[in-house]
Amino acid sequence: MGKPRPNLPRELIVALGVALGAAAVFVWLAALVMSGQAGAFDTAVRAQVHAASSPALTYIMRGFTMLGEAGFLVMLGALIVWRLVALGRRPEAAWLAVAALGAEALDQALKFWFRRPRPAAFFGVAPANSSFPSGHALVSFCFYLVLAEIFIGAEWPRGRRFAARTVAVLLAGWVGLSRIYLGVHYPTDVLAGYAAAIVWLAVLRSLYRVRRQA
């Protein structure tokens, strides 16, 4: 068994703190939604976003929302997992698969629990399943953040690592914003999706670090 690094407890404490903080945000958002107190905020944000709509922006937002579609992520994820396995990077392949599939399972479980009806869509037709939380926000955040972590090289300078993580966060952010823009989710759905994603990633990161030190 390998010798644990001295800073492992600190990493676990930080991850636990992040998970608890994000969980608290999720619970707060869920309480607002279930009590009906989120209505004014959701309505105001939806109105502001929809007021800025245009045909060109709608086209762009449809593109971003496709980057969070289950079908697209499954195909892209399968291709990346296959390539990682071919390169002998099985732990990273497993990490991506567990992160994405676990995020999807978590989303479905939370949707089943809260059963929030969808808002009236601004563009297109809203999906038939429940609205809270946003699966696009939850799964895309987990998928693209883990993908960035996998491809960040150990020799990369700090600035380059920060840039890679920032691109992943921004990409997931635009996916979530596209759901609000298209009108298929309330803003609180998207925020809750990100909060749930942070909890899931913090838990996975802790388990991954512990396993590496075993």
Q: How would you describe this protein?
A:
With 214 residues, the chain is mostly helical. It has one domain. 77% of the residues lie in helices and 0% in strands. It contains eight helices and no strands. The chain is globular.
Quick synopsis:
With 214 residues, the chain is mainly α. It has 8 helices and no strands. Helix content is 77%, strand content 0%.
Largest sheet, in brief, is: none
Task: Determine the structural class based on helices, strands and strand pairing.
Answer: mainly alpha
What is the helix tally? Answer: 8
Q: Report the end-to-end length measured between terminal Cα atoms.
A: 6 Å
Rg on CA atoms, Å: 18 Å
Strand content: under 5%
Query: Percentage of helical residues?
Result: over 70%
What is the mean pLDDT?
A: 90
Order of helices and strands: HHHHHHHH
Number of strands: 0
Task: Please tag this protein with its features.
214 residues, disordered N terminus, mainly alpha, 0% strand
Topology readout:
Blueprint: H1 8-35, H2 39-51, H3 55-66, H4 70-86, H5 90-114, H6 135-151, H7 158-182, H8 187-213
Helix pairs in contact: 1-8, 3-7, 4-5, 5-6, 5-8, 6-7, 6-8
